[in-house]
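Mods, move this if it's the wrong board.
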Amino acid sequence: MIPATSFNKRLVAVFGLGKSGLSTVRALEAGGARVVAWDDGEARRAEAAAAGVTLEDLTTRDWSDIAALVLSPGVPLTHPAPHPTVLLAQAAGVEVIGDVELFYRAARGLVPGGRIVGITGTNGKSTTTALIGHMVKRCGDNAQVGGNIGKPVLDLDMPTATTVYVIELSSYQIDLAPSFAPHVGVLLNITPDHIDRHGTIENYAAVKARLFAHQGEGDTAIIGVDDAYSASICTDVGAKRAAAVVPVSIGKTLGRGVYVLGGQLYDSVSAQTQDVGSLDGLRTLAGTHNWQNAAVAYAAGRALGYSRDKILDAFETFPGLAHRMEIVAEEDGVRYVNDSKATNADAASKALATYDNIYWIIGGKSKEGGIDTLVDYFPRLRRAYLIGAAADEFARTLDGKVDYVQSQTLDRAVEAAARDADEADSSALRVVLLSPACASFDQFANFEQRGEAFRTSVMAHLAAKGRVHA
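Not the wrong board. Structure tokens:
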């Protein structure tokens, strides 16, 4: 744990008592603060009370003695409307921050060389965070990985001389971290997402850009430039000349930066362009989207002082991220891929672009726009297996374009897809792919539970065949 010492002997309100909220309460109390907390959910309040948290309805109390409101990132700060506790805090002149801000205030004076890596982007940030964490370990340092992935930031260990904090950041977390300034900041990409919480795509992009707002000399800003919003941010950050800026592109030669052409990684940050090595053939980093993840991870590794050879070794040994194009088994020419984390069409497009001969398991709670944007990938499909609440909607989109089966449940879909892939008359690799393009909440608690259910069904199928999983 990292004690949040910036409010020692002062009263702090915490709203939202999920995993990060409870972590925040513990860290504030360890740092000497007094804490009152609340959550709109009765079950979470009961869990917090059982853990010894002091509960008090923040909508009915006097705010005059409160020094700060620490808001869970899942609670609206601005859109579609500020939560009532936010309005009360603002009316009382109380700052509204999040756990990442508390982490930064506590850690910035303790981290040797300021080695904090902050990673954000619409897509790919979890894989990139896990990849950078793996790279840090393979290069001999102590990686502390958390934030929007894994552990809450305040539950990470206190720094040692070799610690590098690798922090995944959602737009909500950046919005609540007004002074956060990572030694290495990474922005992968920006596509429309979370507009309900930011109002417009322009507001969403502006929040992402704040990752670099307080960087200074000695810091590095690594920014993907293959979409218009990120490219504009890269130009703006470069114009300020506060931090070293490294543009990253996939498929486009850069006069200065890091880029990938045809699976080959190039470094033109210095005066002479260097051919770093091939990314093609890395099983756990397959596809152009993963080449972007690897390219920004390479740039981050170089900013941290790691050698090219050690970085490439880390890429080769990266086990992959659970539930994100995770290869759970491969037998008899059939690969089983768990991409349960693909909860929207844009995320699902990455897996569809990576493979051919796909037996696609799709469905759940549909996002706006459905799967209309995926039509260009339909020729890669052998059959689709529809599950969950979106099954009828997706059937209408696929009708006449792709053969499909109304499976309804995931276990039935796996059984049918695996059987079809086994029986296919093809020597080429066949891929049974769970990439739902949907939220999981109609049939599962979260995408992790959905991914584990897929794994269980695959292993049951292989066991019935008398096979041992790969």
